[in-house]
Predict the structure.
Amino acid sequence: MKSTTSKRSKKAVTAAGKSARTAAKRLRSAKTVASPAAKRQAGTRSKRIPVRKGRALPAGFEAIERFVKRWALPTQNRRQARRRKSTTAELQDFYDDMLPVLPSILKHVDTFPLGELPQASQRLFFLALSLAEVAPHIELYRGDPNVPYAFEESRFVAEHGEKIG
């Protein structure tokens, strides 16, 4: 004799499976459609961060905006070239102003889904990557833009050097 509980649990499992498959289909279709309505429906709506007109960075990062033109570079090769062309004083100035705001930058960037940074936030992220390029030269090499006692850096070609990010 079969109990009614097992029949009910089978129906519940089947219904849950159908519901999960439907939700997965909805999420996949929302990923391919870039409309804000589809994102809202799938629950993956991006946050809008206020950017004042004429500003390159999101609100709250005005103190480092002067570095955008020179240091917000999208590729590793460009960041490395900028570091190598800079003076020790320029590297130190960039490092001193960027290091205290790095936690705020990372917290801000972390509020967005992977690959969906608005342009102003992406510039902020590129500044953080430039700091990662500069920091060892300030902390380990006494501000020398090149690596002391090493081969000429131009001899090394980064395989990923032209990838953005």
User: Anything to note?
Assistant: The radius of gyration is 24 Å. Residues 83 and 134 are 7 Å apart (CA to CA).
